[in-house]
Design a protein that fits this description.
The complex is a heterodimer.
Chain A lengths: L1 E5 L3 E8 L1 H16 L7 H18 L4 E13 L2 E7 L8 H4 L11 H8 L2 E4 L5 E7 L12
Antiparallel strand pairs in A: 1-2, 2-3, 3-4, 4-6, 5-6
Chain B lengths: L4 E5 L7 E8 L4 H12 L6 E4 L2 E5 L1 H16 L4 E4 L3 H9 L7 E2 L2
Parallel strand pairs in B: 2-3, 2-4, 3-5, 5-6
Antiparallel strand pairs in B: 1-2
The chains are: A alpha+beta, B alpha/beta.
Chain lengths: 146, 105
């Protein structure tokens, strides 16, 4: 499943929890960014989209049709807001934001989003993520040493 | 989205070079890891990954670079990444991997 709905500010996608559909969402966003006239950092936005969806696919419940993921992409005059919601149990995302062993096997997804987003917020349940990227916003931060 | 593919070359006198193309992500990270392992199978101490045709790497893709670096480090060798554009160089910098292996233009 990959259902696209245009909205007044962008688009929504309801998608199955599958890795290959992340590529499709990225492609869709990349197309929309081509017509965006603000000065959004396309690379940063694509990283945010991919990591948010990857986290939802890998940790947001069972992969497949029965655990859909909702993506909302909203453009405005100052930038872009991405919202990704999954049906998983959620988790304590703050604990993982800045704590990364640089040479660990994994655990880079949430720190990467924290680095590239201007604002990042999970809901209290930890399964609805909102990322804000401002046009002309600050550049990517650098991971703090642990 | 550009399809993912990998080209590798190895000679008797030079360190192997692996040149992936497209986007290195969770979807193809295993394929990328296997291509690197194939080049390292004969005990090579050094390896170069040419990113001239790569436009983005996600967190799972970055993990493959870490594994490769650790393998070469254990052999007393080095990983070199070259051909990275400004975005990819920035990515290796902000996640601090450029402090562990060389990332070149």
């Amino acid at each position: 499943m990959f259902r696209i709905t245009d909205t007044s500010s962008g688009f929504r996608v309801q998608m199955s929890s599958r890795l290959d559909l992340i590529d499709r969402a990225d492609e869709l966003l990349a197309q929309r960014l081509l017509s965006d006239t603000s000065n959004l950092d396309a690379f940063a936005v694509r990283i945010l989209l991919r990591e948010a969806l990857l986290n939802a696919v890998l940790h947001g419940g069972r992969q497949g049709e029965d655990s859909p993921i909702d993506l909302d992409v909203a453009f405005d005059a100052d930038g872009l807001t991405l919202t990704v919601a999954d049906r998983g149990p959620g988790f304590d995302w703050r604990r993982r934001l800045d704590r990364l062993d640089v040479l660990a096997d994994g655990g880079r997804g949430i720190p990467l989003m924290g680095i590239y987003a201007d604002e990042m917020q999970y809901d209290s349940g930890g399964n609805r993520l909102t990322l804000r990227k401002r046009a002309n916003g600050a550049g990517a931060k650098t991971l703090q040493r642990t | 989205m550009e399809d993912f593919w990998i080209m590798a070359q190895s000679t008797a006198t030079q360190a192997p070079v692996v040149r992936p193309a497209g986007t290195i992500t969770a979807l193809n990270a295993d394929e990328f890891r296997a291509a690197l392992q194939e080049q390292l199978a004969d005990g090579a101490k050094d390896l170069t990954i040419d990113l001239s045709d790569v436009d983005l790497i996600d967190s799972r893709g970055l993990a493959v670079f870490v594994v490769c670096h650790q393998t070469l480090l254990a052999r007393g060798g080095t990983l070199t990444v070259l051909g990275a554009d400004a975005n990819l160089k920035g990515l290796f910098r902000v996640i601090r991997l450029d402090e562990h292996f060389r990332v070149l233009d």
